[in-house]
Specification:
heterotrimer, A alpha/beta (294), B alpha+beta (94), C alpha/beta (260), B: 94 residues, alpha+beta, Alpha-Beta Plaits, three-stranded antiparallel β-sheet, two-stranded antiparallel sheet, 5 strands, globular, C: 260 residues, alpha/beta, Nucleotidyltransferase, domain 5
């Protein structure tokens, strides 16, 4: 997890947003979820369990500053200050660095809760393919985690692996998925899941005269196979949703659909907020518990 | 909740699976493991507080190697963590 | 009788020619992109250097990752193909008759082999298909450190500090090395950490077959002194390094050929 690499991986713009026509002044419970990831940090402010304001920015180096910065940015222009928030939950890789959080909850649980909010209550399986890891989560109708799997050792099947590969065939990472779909016939997937070896295999294929599109297809096919293997461990139940940077890669997503026979749902807002949303919802539940409302 | 800790890489699938519904936080497995793979931690998965067993963060990426000495190629396999767990909350995928 | 052993590894092809069990010649070349070409060329050249031609060779055995690909390819036309485990054991036993544990670390695979008094394979464990468990890791890290592979070992041995390496995967380890260098960590300390990591992985695997003396280390990575030191430390036992460790598998194949 290096600063250099996080800057390279950062592909989406930083932003903040306040929902128009929402007011916190009459709210019973104002909560915040702060998700400090290794690449991006997000804060979500919720008013009685509805999204009110949010911010997304690059993490840079993880520190206590990060959590403060992203949260203050979310609050900008709202008239709210951190001290006005009833309950703050921290999550994500850097959750220990949210000093003003009353509690920390893992990103797994927050992701599942957040996914329910973003995609709807029918979500039962969440697949998060990030830059450096892969998470598969099974949840119930309330977004409670039933089973999960985290795979963060091996670059194969992660955004990092895709980057290495995209570099190899000189295609920008945002295009590589589309490129992989421009084949008439799906080739055999590369046999090596290890990125290092897959790279060598891809080089050999290119030398044999394979077109970029075909090599891309072979690599994406292997990636999809690998992700399905992981998913099968926890089992796939409809509805399935995908989050994380790699979820934006159509080459992977379409192949997953084909292999699983399930079409992932479309989000009604930026899925990158899933963790922070889940954290803010947990904060609401925890506040209600404290007030004896649960 | 079934928590799978570990990874899949080119050489195989390596996961330690802890069933947190069965785990009563007794900590016997933590003591039984000769390599410090397991540890007790607060339940950060739900609003309910509680203790549960988890795979230590720094161990998750290398359980294939750390657990290797307990998995001899030949001879009886006796995983101290699995054997020490009465409610049978721990399983290894390999 | 002239016997030949060809070991087609992931990175290098090795050939050993024996005459009545004594080594007549050894040759090594990179596999490159064309396994057929590089293997057959090397084979021919090795024979030529020994003043022989294919006709003079009585029996030939191939081993290594690419053995099935090149086995019947002329001029090799091997009589048999054997697995690396068998070849390793045969070669190591010949060089060190008291061997009980053979550790072979190549470019892409690491192996731990248990042999009995007669040199027969009892148990084995293979660490395959993950670059982090073999020589490719050292190579990739050498690139990240901007030193040559040959310099990695001596560089590591200069270090007196132990620093932990978190990343297990080759790809992530590369990024970690870059970060460490940027945080002004001395190159030799990083090099040591890299060797410690790979030695730790290999020794955990070997522990699965159990470590029994005498332990013999072979394969290309055995040439790396920076690896041998932490390996001995992790295994808590002395390790015998035969001469020409990267040729032991090919030697084993040639010995098997002798006894066909």
């Amino acid at each position: 997890m290096t600063e250099e690499k996080t800057q390279e991986c950062w592909k989406w713009p930083e932003y903040r947003h306040t929902m128009p026509e929402m007011d916190w002044h009459d709210a019973k419970i104002v909560t915040a979820g702060v998700d400090v990831g290794s690449v991006g940090s997000k804060t979500v402010i919720m008013v009685d369990g509805e999204l009110y304001a949010c911010s997304v920015m690059r993490t840079g180096g993880v520190s206590e500053e990060t959590a403060l910065k992203v949260t203050n940015w979310a609050l900008e222009g709202t008239g709210l200050e951190i001290k006005d928030i009833h309950y703050v939950v921290g999550t994500g890789y850097g959750r220990v660095n949210v000093p003003f959080a009353k509690r920390t909850i893992t990103e797994i649980a927050c992701h599942a809760r957040g996914a329910h909010y973003i995609y709807g209550p029918t979500v039962r399986t969440v697949l998060d393919i990030g830059g450096q890891d892969c998470k598969a989560i099974r949840c119930d109708e309330k977004g409670k985690v039933l089973s999960f799997l985290m795979n963060d050792k091996c670059a194969a099947g992660t955004g990092r692996g895709l980057e290495v590969f995209a570099d190899l065939i000189s295609v920008p990472i945002q295009e590589v998925g589309k490129v992989s779909l421009s084949v008439d016939q799906e080739p055999q997937p590369v046999s090596n899941t290890c990125v290092i070896f897959a790279k060598a295999e891809a080089l050999a294929l290119l030398r044999q005269g394979w077109l970029k599109e075909r090599v891309a297809a072979a690599y994406h096919a292997a990636m999809a196979d690998r992700i399905v293997d992981l998913l099968t461990r926890v089992g796939v139940e409809k509805d399935l949703v995908t989050t994380g940077g790699v979820a934006k890669n159509v080459g992977v997503v379409q192949r997953l659909e084909r292999l699983l026979g399930v079409k992932p749902l479309s989000p009604r807002m930026d899925p990158i907020l899933a963790g922070a949303i889940g954290a803010a919802l947990f904060a609401k539940a925890l506040q209600e518990k404290e007030l004896g409302l649960r | 909740m079934l928590a799978h800790y570990g990874y899949k890489n080119g050489s195989g699938d390596y996961f330690i699976i802890i069933d947190t519904d069965k785990c009563d936080g007794c900590g016997k497995c933590v003591e039984a493991c000769p390599y410090g793979v397991l540890e007790l931690a607060p339940n950060e998965y739900d609003i309910e507080e509680g203790i549960m067993v988890t795979v230590a963060e720094e161990q998750r990426k290398k359980i294939k190697y750390t657990c290797a000495p307990c998995k001899p190629v030949s001879g009886e396999r006796r995983l101290p963590c699995v054997l020490s767990c009465e409610p049978k909350a721990i399983t290894h995928s390999w | 009788m002239i016997a030949a052993g060809v070991d087609v590894g992931a990175k290098f092809v090795k050939v050993v020619i024996l005459s009545d069990g004594k080594v007549l010649g050894r040759a090594k070349a990179p596999v490159g992109f064309d396994v057929w070409r590089s293997s057959s060329d090397l084979f021919e050249n090795a024979l030529k250097s020994a003043g022989l031609s294919r006709r003079d060779v009585g029996k030939g055995v191939v081993t290594g990752m690419g053995r099935k690909t090149i086995r019947l390819r002329p001029p090799i036309n091997a009589d048999e193909a054997v697995s690396e485990v068998i070849a390793d054991a045969a070669g190591a036993f010949q060089l060190v008759p008291t061997v009980k544990t053979v550790i072979d670390v190549g470019a892409e695979e690491g192996r731990g082999i248990k042999v009995d008094q007669g040199g027969k394979v009892k148990d084995f464990v293979i660490n395959e298909r993950c670059a982090a468990g073999a020589g490719t890791f050292v190579e990739a890290m050498a690139r990240a450190l901007e030193v040559s592979v040959e310099d990695m070992g001596p560089l590591a041995l200069k270090s007196t500090k132990t620093i932990p390496m978190n990343a297990q995967c080759c790809v992530f380890a590369e990024s970690e090395v870059v970060t460490l260098i940027h945080s002004k960590v001395a190159k030799e300390d990083v090099a040591k950490a890299i060797h410690d990591a790979i030695a730790s992985r290999i020794s955990s695997m070997v522990l699965r077959v159990g470590v029994e003396r005498d332990v013999v280390l072979i394969g290309g990575v055995a040439l790396n002194p920076g690896f041998v030191v932490p390996l001995k430390r992790e295994l808590r036992v002395d390790v015998i390094l035969p001469e020409y460790p990267e040729f032991v598998s090919a030697l084993g194949a040639a010995l098997i050929a002798t006894n066909i």
